[in-house]
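Chain A, query sequence.
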Amino acid sequence: MNKLTQILTVITVAFFVLIISANAELPDPGVKFLKGHTAIVITDPQVDFLSPKGVAWHLVGKSVTANNTVENIDRLMKIAGEMDIPLFISPHYYFPTDLDWKHGGALEAAMHHLHMFERAGQLSLEGFDGSGSDWMPQYKKYINNGKTYVSSPHKLYGPDSNDTVLQLRKRGIDQIILAGMSANLCTESHLREFMEQGFEVLVVTDAVAAAQLPGLDGYASAMVNFRMIANSVKTTDETIKQIKKELQEPIRAELESEESEEKKAETEEKKEMMKDMEK
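Chain A, predicted structure.
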């Protein structure tokens, strides 16, 4: 190794050490949720990613299991229904007409080799139920409820080529709670495009997962970029706590406020009675 190479190596290592040590010093802008302006967006909540039966499980299974990703996505979908928060799904499908592409990146080639997310046709559900392209079984009650919006499929990673952004805009949404698969690919690509489009985005760090290969940790990579790009990054517990605090129905909030005022009045009344008794 010559002297110049040694110098460059030292500079590179020092740079990454500086970035890691500075992580805690990065600003944390946060997102204050507003009712009617906030939605939950889930990328690729499908069998091929999230089930041991899926074709990508040998790549992502360790991360999915460690993060409790399947259950945490379920919790976000559940709270969306309970708190009347719009739920959007951005799925990943490949149709027969997508399989004769002339070139593609490394992960594209891998997905096509695995027959990942393949469907019989754009207008056909033949063989779809229970396939790798289908939703995880526990999510179907949330997604197939007639209220959840399912966008047209993205074919690579981001929402640039589907109608997710349009559908969010048409509903007056400008704040997004983002989760799903895969953290450093589709989820991160959605984050980047949402930020470019002027949305505020909170990423839920344990409701995502990614491929982990020797020398290539997709989850670690995503966590760095989430922290640097998003308005906020939180766990599922932290996100649900914030949702319950900031996205209560106005009527419910008013009732709780009235109940609180009544309790205060009762307390004051008891204090006055005690004073009278002491006299």
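The mean pLDDT is 89. The radius of gyration is 23 Å.
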